[in-house]
């Protein structure tokens, strides 16, 4: 609705402010240029096509700014596709709406990738000079869409499923699957000693540990989840037997706390705290 109102205002401005008369063929050419420019630049990634569309003094930057914008956008949304509807031309102005759809795979406007396919709209008013675009004004709802897409799903069952999946990966000696649930900089406090582990683990290192006797047979009991913005805290109990390469065995029932962060479109373990065996 917001963009529809903005489009109406732009179109009113288009009609009121158009002072350069243009024939029907010229107006159609302006529309065709918009369609072709969006197809080449955003749908196909033909960035040099900007030289055919924008004047050298376009917004005091020339076509290079458009090329960078298109490259950045297609880098962040690799499967980006756009369509134009509606489009209205009057005099030396064209008002149009662009609908974008793509999978959010890179950081934009401060938002890290969510991995979600999103759709947003822009409304744009373009002014022509000698058959090319020399100025543009626009408005987009991308910020609002990104804010909504980045909101963590506050679903306790989903968070518990991630924790259980990580435990299952350890039980199965699957280092790659376990680390996929962990933030690269996550920390760990384990019942094997008083040390807070902060060193980043790698798949090869964990695989070596499994080959040297690291073994888990764990279950999660009585899990509870509390949400605090983009963070979820999971508490409960861990049961079963853990065997470590140094020969140490941890058995019984342990208090379990996991701090999870919503980042890059998924819940990741930031800190894991397992208590000493409870008496």
What are the key terms here?
single chain; 279 residues; alpha+beta; Nuclear Transport Factor 2, Chain: A; 2 domains; 8 helices; 11 strands; NTF2-like_dom_sf
Describe the structure.
The chain is of the alpha+beta class. The chain has 2 domains: 2-150, Roll (Nuclear Transport Factor 2, Chain: A), CATH 3.10.450; 156-277, Nuclear Transport Factor 2, Chain: A. 34% of the residues lie in helices and 38% in strands. The chain has 8 helices and 11 strands. A hairpin with a 2-residue loop joins strand 7 and strand 8 (231-243). It starts with a helix and ends with a strand. The model is unreliable at 1-21 (pLDDT under 50). Pfam families: DUF4440 (PF14534), SnoaL (PF07366). Residues 160-268 form the DUF4440 domain. InterPro entries: Cyclase_SnoaL-like, DUF4440, NTF2-like_dom_sf. This is DUF4440 domain-containing protein. Residues 1-24 form the signal peptide.
